[in-house]
Design goal:
Helices cover 41% and strands 18% of the residues. It has 335 residues and is α/β, with parallel strands linked by helices. The chain folds into two domains: 193 residues, Isopropylmalate Dehydrogenase; 118 residues, Rossmann fold. Helix 5 crosses helix 6 and helix 9 packs antiparallel against helix 10. The model has no long low-confidence stretch (mean pLDDT 94). Its EC number is 1.1.1.41.
Length: 335
Amino acid sequence: MTQTITVIRGDGIGPEIMDATLHVLDAMQLGLSYEFADAGLAALEKHGELLPASTMDSIRKHRIALKSPLTTPVGEGFSSINVELRKRFDLYANVRPAKSFPNTKSRFPSGVDLITVRENTEGAYIGEGQSVSEDGETAVLTQKITRKGSERIVRYAFELARKTGRKKVTVVHKANILKSTSGLFLKTAREVAQLYPDIQCNEMIVDNTCMQLVMKPEQFDIIVTTNLFGDIISDLCAGLVGGLGLAPGANIGTEAAIFEAVHGSAPDIAGKGIANPCALLLGAAQMLDHLALPEQAERLRAAIIGTLEAKDSLTPDLGGEGNTMSFAKAIATRL
């Protein structure tokens, strides 16, 4: 296989975890090649803008990108570079797996294996129609949900269940109160669910979902929900399995897909060589799944698990005395 991917090294600890991730991918000898592009503070310093046209062109050309965390400067540019990328490429599906790994700070060492599928392009999280009254006393935000957006994200969740052999999709909503927006999402989800009689579908109100995730996460398989609810739930799920250092994410559309570590750029530890690269490595595994290389994706995940089990060169956050690259080299050795 030969495939060129756009690589965005990111800000803060981004370059360190990207170098570690590419070291592991190179060890797999998959025939991948890289076109490096800039975004975030690195792009602002080099090109004078947060998201240069050359970076957009690269993603458009190769249709696959692997991205480290980015920093959006306060008070200028986009409200979020990640949101801007999702908008421009219509990356409507945000896919966040949460799985228990050995020798981590997971509260459920063997009981969590679920995926949150979050609508990525509409809803309250997008921040459309924001305004504050002249007296500063009233703020307004428009929340828009469409049948099209709801249908395609729910279809994606059910198709993902079929593809991965999962048996249940939980539709998370707040239709009891938000009868128009969340109500439309739930109504559309019910219609889509009827097309997948082989997949169990249940419905759950978002606040109850959060409680159930904390009490009994093993009851969930795939969760599908709207943008803001999905943002909150996916981070909650990361907390169940040891934190954002083990949380990858995929942003998938029909014309492009971007795979990432969902944690921040952590400028306080940048340059120290102690950042945990697991989230980006797991994002790379999602990328391999997307490239129709599921066996290689599982090979990568198995090497990560084996390294965690052996406590081999783990970074300090995982209780080890290794560094970012020594951890990556230990994983590469198992490949």
